[in-house]
């Protein structure tokens, strides 16, 4: 009798271990298209932050290089450039990653409280680093609360608060994110700040100045942009939950493309009819809808190509960056912007100038060298399996 009992206990233990192993294997599953897209976004940021396309235009003026330089600069006020879409894409991918992380935590038996504390800690560090990296500019303190990290600190909490809710609740929450700023900007009439879509005369600028901190060097970007940008992260969570669901792949892609196309149509309609102009600097609803729609369609296409059709070759160039996205962002803002870019521009530019290369072309080439150094750093971390997470 004892031996039978022991055998059964052993069998139960083995069954439990097998179940736990299976659960851990599922928890390790990755959405490769997510890593690719995060890497693509960060590669664009890494190159753009060196100023390569502007310097390339200086070195080789022409219609094509001019177009590139324009697309890698933010729009002055109204309009949309490629560079304007990067932050919304980053925030949407953060939502997709949150959905994946939360799914893994559920598989591993995390309580809702435990998951919330992890998100709260992440938001704290996002806010901390987001403030710190821009805290000193032009020899004075500059409390920057409108960059991607500080905005993401708030939108992460907003998205997590409805992560367990039904689709219609999540969608309603994202719509409210768009409506609340619309109401605030249009209804609150403060002398000098009563023109909702005019530079320096809108409600967002009033909030900036009321806080007594220099939010942005030109006071265009608003601290309260995180309200409307919350829709990006919520849509990311919704997209992630859809992609990790048991629905068939075709339905997942169709739903994402349809939602994205509808968002773009509504956003463009609001802009072209002048109901709500497309303004990146104050994150208007039309801007959020168009950029969010573009991101979701690109995500759907990448998911179809990479994860469904299994085209996974030649992705490592981007994936090694995407798997350390927060780290490399902090690196090229802290180290690159404040020291490395300028150092390499002088070193490479003047050395090449001795060989007869113009200073303008040498300056552009220094940007490529900086980018490759940053990429190699990401590759080194990837090979050593070192991944920095907040």
Plain-language structure description:
The protein is mainly α and 390 residues long. It has one domain (22-383). Helices cover 72% and strands 1% of the residues. The chain has 15 helices and two strands. It has helices at 2-27, 32-49, 52-59, 63-71, 82-107, 112-132, 148-160, 167-187, 203-211, 225-243, 249-272, 285-308, 316-322, 325-354, 359-383; strands at residues 136-137, 140-141. The protein has a two-stranded antiparallel ribbon with strand order 1-2. β1 and β2 (140-141) form a beta hairpin. The longest helix has 30 residues, at 325-354. The chain is globular, with a radius of gyration of 23 Å. It starts with a helix and ends in a 7-residue tail after the last helix.
Physical arrangement of strands within the biggest beta sheet: 1-2
Indicate the low-confidence ranges by residue numbers. Answer: 1-9, 15-28
Number of helices: 15
Strand content: under 5%
How many distinct folded domains?
Answer: 1
What is the 3D form? globular
Count the strands?
2
Structural category is mainly alpha
Order of helices and strands: HHHHHHEEHHHHHHHHH
Mean pLDDT: 87
- The percentage helix is over 70%
From the N-terminal CA to the C-terminal CA, the straight-line distance is: 53 Å
Tell me the major beta sheet.
Answer: 2 strands, antiparallel
Rounded radius of gyration (Å): 23 Å
Keywords:
mainly alpha; disordered N terminus; two-stranded antiparallel sheet; 15 helices; 72% helix; 390 residues; globular
Topology:
Blueprint: H1 2-27, H2 32-49, H3 52-59, H4 63-71, H5 82-107, H6 112-132, E1 136-137, E2 140-141, H7 148-160, H8 167-187, H9 203-211, H10 225-243, H11 249-272, H12 285-308, H13 316-322, H14 325-354, H15 359-383
Helix pairs in contact: 1-5, 2-5, 2-12, 2-13, 2-14, 3-4, 3-15, 5-7, 5-10, 5-12, 6-7, 7-10, 8-10, 10-12, 11-12, 14-15
